[in-house]
């Protein structure tokens, strides 16, 4: 069965799967605990606008996604600070406007956008040498940032008001957390695509939360589960000849379900 | 006597329509132990937020230690209502207490030996040593309240503000908390917001009853302060009658 491991494209896919598992495991825990999965979904969908424009201009779509996801992350962060009552609606609007921009530019692009579907729903088995480099850099940046800022993120999410009163720079830190979400979205586009990203950001983290009540342990478990789901999904999608995105999402969902069932069956009352 | 907080004719309204505070003037002096009472919607939380510099009054001036409230934050510690804390949050007692020191650290700096010593002392003072590695959701209401107090005290405040500290805390823990605050009062000025001020009344030296403005039965005509040298029983109704 492991003869497929000798193919470079498959090795690349597995490396991307493992790296993106690290990014989404870590950032996913912050998303789930801060309860901002809707914001993260909006950032992910809005990044499609950048993919469309990049297609039109003939540059790497990952770069377009990067720019758009960061702009939408900052946009949501600033709107929610300036006008709390508009936050929910603006998240939804940015979600749809990003998608609309992407579709319009792809419509204007001559020829058929062959791997458009892979950006929407992910296909990690497509050859993508340069994506590997992007993912490596972004992953390193995310890891380093969280390593340095961990205590600050934990504190501002736990009690924002107290953090403000102790002169912690809460707003810049929150904006930066949103930017890290944007970067992890870009890391994940290859494996699951913009539409399915949100499940990979939330399900492994939610599963991990069922298993531990220590912040760092939750992160380690979430990373492990995300890597497991990614690699299992990649192997299954190869043998079943199906796109990787949905298979990875099914794997994360099944893992969540199993952990939930075990926890609730064995729970002492 | 040194003035810690000075409020002059402050007015605040929601959306410039609904009055919350109207012409509130008072002074808090060094080592005061103030009970801030009043009916729901009387503006207690709003006044607290103004003192903390989280919101600005529409009119009037508040100074804390002679400065703008937001510039005085290093000297102030705040203990929020613990019902505001998410009990599912994966954070340990130790991490909560240490977070009180984060604001004084540069971003990315590690905690040093001095910080850990401070936190150990705070744990010991609050009798929380053997709960150090517990997650906050595993604590009782009284224990959780002590953790929040420890997080505030680790910052060495000169002014301590507490919002309804005995809400949903059993009576014994509440009494212990008040005894503790009484001890702390020797070193710092304390303002406690409470609907249940009768249990704290033997420790407080002044009471402000707030219902849009400060009303009391023995107000100083000039400063609007309530003279409350002797509160055996403090009750209030919507008119803030204290007796």
List keywords for this structure.
heterodimer, A: 269 residues, mainly alpha, ABC transporter involved in vitamin B12 uptake, BtuC, 10 helices, 84% helix, globular, B: 243 residues, alpha/beta, Rossmann fold, six-stranded mixed beta sheet, three-stranded antiparallel beta sheet, 5 helices
Secondary structure topology:
The complex is a heterodimer of chains A (269) and B (243).
Chain A: H1 8-34, H2 37-57, H3 61-82, H4 87-108, H5 116-121, H6 129-158, H7 160-165, H8 170-211, H9 215-240, H10 244-266
Chain B: E1 3-14, E2 18-29, E3 33-37, H1 44-52, E4 59-64, E5 76-79, H2 93-99, H3 113-125, H4 141-153, E6 159-163, H5 171-184, E7 189-193, E8 206-211, E9 213-215
Parallel strand pairs in B: 3-7, 3-8, 5-6, 6-7
Antiparallel strand pairs in B: 1-2, 1-4, 8-9
Helix pairs in contact in B: 2-4, 3-4
Question: Can you offer a commentary on this structure?
Answer:
The complex is a heterodimer of chains A (269) and B (243). Chain A has a single domain, classed as ABC transporter involved in vitamin B12 uptake, BtuC, CATH 1.10.3470. Helix content of chain A is 84%, strand content 0%. Chain A is globular and about 55 Å long. The mean pLDDT of chain A is 91. Chain B has five helices and nine strands. In chain B, strand 8 and strand 9 form a beta hairpin. In chain B, helix 2 runs parallel beside helix 4 and helix 3 crosses helix 4. At the A-B interface, helix 6 and helix 7 of A face helix 2 of B.
